[in-house]
Amino acid sequence: MSTEALGEEPGAEPPDTGAPAKSAAPADSADSAADPGALAWARRRRSAARFWRAYRGQRAGLVGLVALAVIAFTALAAPLLVGSDADSVTDAPGTALENPSTEFPLGTDQFGRSVLDLLVYGARISLTVGLLAAALTVGIGTLVGMLAGHYGGWLSGVLMRVTDFFLVMPTLVLAIVLATVMSRSVTTVIIAIGVAAWPKTARLVRAQTLAIEARPYVERARALGGGHTHVMRRHVLPNVLPLVLAQTTLVISEAILTEATLAFLGLGDPQVVSWGGMLQDAREAGAISSGHWSFLVPPGIAIAVVALCFTLAGRALESVLNPKLGVAK
Amino acid sequence: MQPTDENAFPPGPSPRPTPAAARHRRRLRHALCAGAAALALVGAAAVGPAGPAAATSAQDSGDGGDDGGGDGGDGDRTVLTAAVAQSVDSLSPFLAVTLVATTLNRLMYDSLVNYDVKTQEPIPGLAEKWEPSDAGRTWTYTIRDGVEWSDGRPLTAEDARWTFHTMMTDDAAGTANGSYVTNFEKVSAPDPRTLVVELKEPQATMNSMDLPIVPKHVWKDVDNLGKFNNDADFPVVGSGPYVLTDFKTDSYVTFERNENFWRGAPKFDEVTFKYYKETDAAVAALRKGEVSFVPDLTPAHAASLADHPDIKVNDGQGRRFWAIAVNPGARDVEGRTFGDGHPALLDPKVRKALFHAVDRDVIVNKVLQGHGVVGAGYIPPRFADYHWKPSADQEVGYDPQEAARLLDEAGYELKDGKRVGKDGRPLDFRMLCHATDPKDKAAGKYLEEWWGALGIGLDLQCLDNVGDPWVAGEYDLAFDGWSVNPDPDFVLAIHTCAALPESEDVVGQTDNFICDKEFDRLYAEQLATYDDPAKRAETVQEMQSVLYDTGYMNVLAYPNSVEAYRTDHIKSITAMPAGNGNIWGQDGSWSWATAVPAAAASEDDDGSALGVVLGGGAAVVIVAAASVVFTLRRRATAEDRE
Fold first, then answer.
1. Distance, CA of B342 to CA of B251 (rounded, Å)
2. DSSP B195-229
């Protein structure tokens, strides 16, 4: 193994690796040989540019990214775009369940609020919950996966059995149970989704950890006296991160869907405007059978579009970052 | 009611709109699984009318499929199908407390005294006449001659005696209506037509004994009345206008008419209550003619059904009040307190400030969208004799300035937009709301903003089962509501000290842990006034005044009963009371017993639902088309890579 290790250079690794690439850096850089820090930054800039070139080639991913940027901007600028009292029921401008008009392009809800304004406001909750829940999911998943992959043995057995336990449990059912027993708030929904959806990431990260730890340079690091923490922080984590990043993007769309589902089932916070909550309101107001499609269809489409965008971006990211798909240049 | 619609009995349980859409979706799921799940959500929601209705029918058709039919299909039999949503707790009149179960019980069993359908006054039922003697302590009922149970056995005073005696002696049998008989000393039936009830104290409710009487020859063999739900042995012997012939939990309840009913056999051969847990599905079924009657409509439903040529919407005065209850510090009969109600609410000024900030007109106009009456006293205006309105200087009307002034006066200063007490604790209240009742949630949003403007925080806790925190006293505020009977005794009794639980582990009869000496004194007074209805009404009004002044119960509104029926199935159905009454949940079985079938059913029509299907379909097509484009592009890039 040790002889092979000499031939295996981190250059073959995914682009934005941190530590192991250090030894290779002087060979790569001809211009500024003085400062290793500046060298590292130059290399990182280059790999970022390389990554962006590769990502640009993914048209679907680009579409998703642009759409996400627009949605994120809308969500952040919501108070400026539609006014900060768009979700107020006492100051509602219209009458109940109006049809689309020039004043209310998507009609009004049962309180007389503009559905378009609510849609813009709802984006904030959907994105917040999506991002935070995904972060929680991936956080737990990465931790468990790396620990199991690195230490192996009985710890791996125990952690993986726990993972299996959560894996066989349908995510939605688990999330519903958690959202039911805890008080109704946005935090609860985030925790419910985060706790329910992590096993996939854990499995993925464990597999990647095992693959990386089998590589010769890790063995070399060990031989040079690198402890558990060093190996995990300097070698495993940087190599797992690209995968985790792609996984995060995919998990976000799943989290947004779950959030909408929970809100639609009446398990969300009734005091905030969210897309799933709007669907639930529309159902409770009887909009479905009384033909008020303009209250019902827009939030549904919004959920689908945002989930789609994250999926597109995530897939593109995955194919750029995952060398197994043969795209990395 | 003709099952002509193709959606009525679909091949599979899945409510997919069309194979084409399903195919689109499958491809989408294959390529972009997460996006597809979102689409399914849109699709399922948008194509609602066809979806849930079809699913429900499919579920029903598994039970023989004979109950989905109508009068049109199988010739002469007339069937009235009504949609219901609430689950039956028990079909035993000793145990049933839910509105749906007590309504079904009234179809099955008649009572000594009925309420007149027009005036809601007590009128003779199984008892022809009754009279008090011994200063109201002895009541003699004369049982109607020649009344028979549905199995042909005569109905006698012994059946009534056995029913009351069982409720007095068997704790389980007193579960639902035990409070009616706690004051009974002795019940006897000296002859088959005479029932004598001896009381400990005079009791005005003896004039309105509308407890169901059960057949002794059937019920005396029941081992454990606490476990017997009366839903296994069909047909169930009864004395009401209809006989229960079949029941499946949350699926259907079927009745056949009782040819022996003493008021005369009803016109419909069968009455079936079919379960639709979704009002939207029930409304779609009504449009298609699968059901003839749907209760509890939302304002949007009522508005959209009003234009339908074959459907009549009944916007009747409701029997219910809808109120905000304030936790007065939960306590048991011994005065031991429990729970964790906010101490600031014990200050009358804080309560008054809360209600000064509530605009009841807005609640009625916006939340109920006009389908209700602005709240005042405790008993709804439908019961004109007992209804009470606060006087001008007593009334806590909408006045946010006054509310703010009261809070200042009570020592709750406004700091950074929050009202904070002297102990540093902010005025943040929890409020229990019924997750199953959209009204609560909607009104909660208004309260949140009104109180928020005062600096009071509101945490709306919408639960499927509010009972657990409620009986534990773990709430600050709560949405509350009861159906009121023509005799108001029950809804008054639940605010007396005697109704408090025996300890914190026991569920008492109390509604909201209110215990007020003056209220109790008046309660006893009205109960004893058996021979002077006018004087009793006066006392009852005074009680409401006392209750209003405590500030622990504040009635927001009296919601209407909004319901609809098909005029091509039902020629006429009687609302109670005359003029502007309700059909579902009456004090009696009048609506079903006197409904007249229409001569012939006309063609089905679901024009408005079509719009939704088209709209939803268009959305599905747009997203599906977009996804196809993306899929193709993705495939193209994949090929490029390889």
1. 42
2. EEEEESS--GGGGG--PBP--HHHHTT-S-TTT--
The pLDDT-based confidence of B75 (bands split at 50, 70, 90) is low
Decide if A194 contacts A140 (C-beta within 8 A).
yes
What ipTM was estimated for this complex?
0.76
Neighbour count for residue A194 (Cβ, 10 Å): 24
Least confident among B107-111, B301-305, B432-436: B432-436
Paired tokens of B503: 């300890």
- Using a 10 angstrom Cβ sphere, with 0-12 exposed, 13-18 middle and 19 or more buried, the burial of residue B70 is buried
CB–CB of A291 and B609 under 8 A? yes
Amino acid at B44: A
Task: Indicate which of B30, B42, B276, B294 best probes the interface with A, i.e. most A CBs within 10 Å of its own CB.
Answer: B42
In a 13 Å sphere around the CA of A67, the CA atoms on its Cβ side amount to: 18
CA B552, B553, B555 angle in degrees (round to 5)?
A: 150
Considering only CB atoms, A254 lies closest to which of B34, B305, B446, namely B34
Contacts of B517 (CB under 8 A, 6+ apart): B497
B94 contacts B552 by C-beta, under 8 angstroms: no
pLDDT at B638 over 80: no
Residue A223 confidence (pLDDT) above 80:
yes
Q: 3-state class of B336 per DSSP?
A: coil
Given a contact cutoff of 8 angstroms between Cβ atoms, the answer to whether B458 and B429 are in contact is yes
CB neighbours (10 Å) of residue B551? 20
Among A111, A300, A315, beta carbon nearest to B46: A300
pLDDT band at residue A94 under the 50/70/90 scheme: confident
* DSSP letters for B108-127: H--BSEEE-TTT--EEESSE
CB–CB contact B441 A319 (8 Å)? no
β-pair type (B428-434, B293-294): unpaired
Nearest 5°: the CA angle B283, B285, B290 is 140
Q: Does the distance separating the beta carbons of B611 and A297 come in below 8 Å?
A: no
CB contact under 8 A, B608 and A291: yes
Chain A residue closest to B362 (CA)? A90
Amino acid letter at A232?
M
Give the nearest partner residue to B612 out of A57, A293, A312, using CB atoms: A293
Beta-ladder partners of B247: B253
B112-158 pLDDT tens trace: 999 999 888 899 999 999 999 888 899 999 999 989 999 999 999 99
Number of residues in chain B: 642
B49 contacts chain A (CB < 8 A): yes
Residue B635 contacts A, CB cutoff 8 Å: no
d(CA B196, CA B131): 10
- Which residues on adjacent β-strands are paired with residue B275? B84
> Smallest Cβ distance to A291: which of B299, B304, B433?
B304
In which band, very low, low, confident or very high, does the pLDDT at A86 lie, cut at 50, 70 and 90? confident
pLDDT range class, residue A156, cuts 50, 70, 90: very high
Catalogue the long-range contacts made by A324-328 (C-beta closer than 8 Å, 24 or more residues apart).
A325/B641, A326/B641, A327/A54, A327/B641, A328/A14, A328/A15, A328/A54
Distance CA B483, CA B161 (A): 28
HSE-up of residue B504 (Cα within 13 Å, Cβ side): 13
pLDDT interval class at B42 (50, 70, 90): very low
Look over chain B and give the mean of its residue pLDDT values, rounded to a whole number: 82
Q: Across chain A, which distance is largest between two alpha carbons, in Å? A: 78
> Using one digit for the tens of pLDDT, what is the confidence trace for B409-426?
998 988 888 899 888 889
Residue B449 tokens, joined = 């903003």
Q: What is the pLDDT of chain A when averaged over all its residues?
A: 83
Total-model pTM = 0.77
Encode burial over A177-190: b for 16+ CB neighbours within 10 A, e otherwise: ebbeeeebebebbb
